Amino acid sequence: MPVDRQLAVLLVRAPEGSLERWTLPWAPAPGTGTSLDELAADVARRAVPIAPGWLEQVGAFADDRRHPGDVALSVGFVGAVPAGTRSSLGEDAAWFPVAELPALAPRHQAIVAAALEAVRHRLDLAPIAFRLLPSSFTLSDLQRVYEILLGRRLHKASFRRALQAASLVQPTGEWRSEGRGRPAQLFRFAPRRRGRRRRGVRFDLLG
Amino acid sequence: MPVDRQLAVLLVRAPEGSLERWTLPWAPAPGTGTSLDELAADVARRAVPIAPGWLEQVGAFADDRRHPGDVALSVGFVGAVPAGTRSSLGEDAAWFPVAELPALAPRHQAIVAAALEAVRHRLDLAPIAFRLLPSSFTLSDLQRVYEILLGRRLHKASFRRALQAASLVQPTGEWRSEGRGRPAQLFRFAPRRRGRRRRGVRFDLLG
DNA sequence: GACCTTAGTATCGCGCGGGTACTAATTCGC
DNA sequence: GCGAATTAGTACCCGCGCGATACTAAGGTC
Q1: What is the CATH number of the domain that holds B65?
Q2: Does residue A203 fall inside a structural domain?
Q3: Which CATH number do you get for residue A153?
Q4: Please, what is the Cα angle at B84 between B78 and B85, to 5 degrees?
Q5: What is the pLDDT, as a whole number, of residue A107?
Q6: pLDDT digits (tens, 9 = 90+) for A64-87
Q7: Last residue within a domain, chosen from B71, B98, B121
Q8: What confidence score (pLDDT) does residue B195 get?
């Protein structure tokens, strides 16, 4: 979830005697036949009070980088929960901004790195940014999330034009006054599937 | 690899007594600590005479869809080998166009589907199309590969303009006459890293 | 030599993206 | 109270990328 202009990662306190003090939430594999997605949803349910609005696998890791549980193979997942999900977490869990992560087991570091890359790559294929916000939000909120995830500033007018053209949001009619400045209108995520435009090939991202 | 206007998948003959006649090339996991990428490269090396120019993980699969080896968890990989790699394959392996795949174990079907999606999603992040062609190729060849992978026709002039602007290819100076029609100039993949352009957010692919 | 087929280029128009600048509505400081 | 600061939202302009159309080039086939 986003916490003041940064993405934050949920960590849980490691058991006594571990090499690190914090770990990613994880669980050992149960009996055969369980879907990985269900298993990941279980882990998430145990870690945060509300279900993530987006949850996706980022890959399997089995090299010699150490996992806290010393398991041979780990399957990493990323999820998104709305900003403001800090209440009722319990003492054993906390959000850490990605730039200030505590020491993690090497394999967990790799998983976090892969998760961040996955988020960036799937940002325009899945409604990740919307799942990082509460159900009603301002357009400036939304733009801030995109700027956090992309790591660069965006042009306000272009952002809104593109958003409008894709008809992804609906105004709720309510307005929110956030301290100083003009109040902003609240929107909700309400995609009305227009025929998606097919554009040319992008060579400029290659390499 | 591309085979007459379609992508083709390499399958190997299943051992006697299996439920299906063909399977994806696969190997059981060895002892702990082996990198998955090395393992995948090994499997590829055993399956095709030349090393794939691109190889990437597509994810882990552990639901109750059956794997021919009845393993609990499988990690799928995709690779790309140049068109024309059909010689010296041996009798136990063959290329099948994706539209005419024989019956496969359910988990292998899922892996193939995920692999195709991965190819499409990473097409403009990794030089996949170039790895599906021999080291020297015509621009029409390249465009055909992109059209196969994207599943739609592309505009010739736009395609070449964008390619030129990204300075990804160099003319070799040679020309190839392919039956009828004007001979085409041969190019090689020679990316000269220009500063990649940062463009706006795409909302139109979302959903 | 007429015609087909494929390669490659030129020109034009439209729409998108981004820069700049503007208006609108609220809080803060004095 | 009133201006300054701050944030929201819009208007205009310009350049470029994309796609349509049409054209030239160079080889085959009959």
Answers
A1: 3.90.79.10
A2: no
A3: 1.10.10.10
A4: 55
A5: 95
A6: 888 888 888 999 999 999 987 665
A7: B121
A8: 65
Picking from B146, B167, B166, B168, the residue whose alpha carbon sits closest to that of residue B156 is: B146
Spatial contact of B139 and B164, defined as CB atoms under 8 Å apart: no
Pairing of strands B93-97, B74-80: unpaired
Whether B28 and B70 share a structural domain = yes
Tokens standing for residue A41:
């949803």
Is there a contact between B63 and A155 if contact means CB atoms under 8 Å apart?
no
Of A29, A193, A205, the CB nearest to B124: A205
Q: Is A68 exposed, middle or buried (0-12, 13-18, 19+ CB in 10 A)?
A: buried
Cβ within 7 Å of strand C: which of B 142-181? Answer: 156-157, 160, 178, 180-181
- CB under 8 Å to B185, separation ≥6 — which residues? B138, B139, B171, B172, B173, B174, B175
Question: Straight-line distance from CA A166 to C1' C18, in Å?
Answer: 19
What range defines the domain where residue B146 resides? 133-189
What are the tens digits of pLDDT across the range B107-161? Answer: 999 999 999 999 999 999 999 999 999 999 999 999 999 999 999 999 999 999 9
**Contact: A121, B126; criterion CB under 8 Å:** no
Q: Which residues pair with B170 in a beta bridge?
A: B188
Asked if B41 and B28 touch (Cβ cutoff 8 Å), the reply is no
- One domain, residues A106 and A13: yes
| Domain end (from A94, A121, A148) | A121
Is residue A179 one of the residues assigned to a domain? yes
Q: Is the model's pLDDT at A89 over the cut of 70? A: no
Confidence (pLDDT) at B92:
85
- Residue B206 to residue A124, Cβ atoms within 8 A: yes
pLDDT number for residue B179? 77
Which pLDDT belongs to residue B17? 82
**Structural domain includes residue A97:** yes
B54 within domain boundaries: yes
Angle between helices B139-150 and B156-165 (to 10 degrees): 110
Angle, helix A139-150 to helix A106-121, in steps of 10 degrees: 130
Assess whether B116 and B157 both reside in one domain.
Answer: no
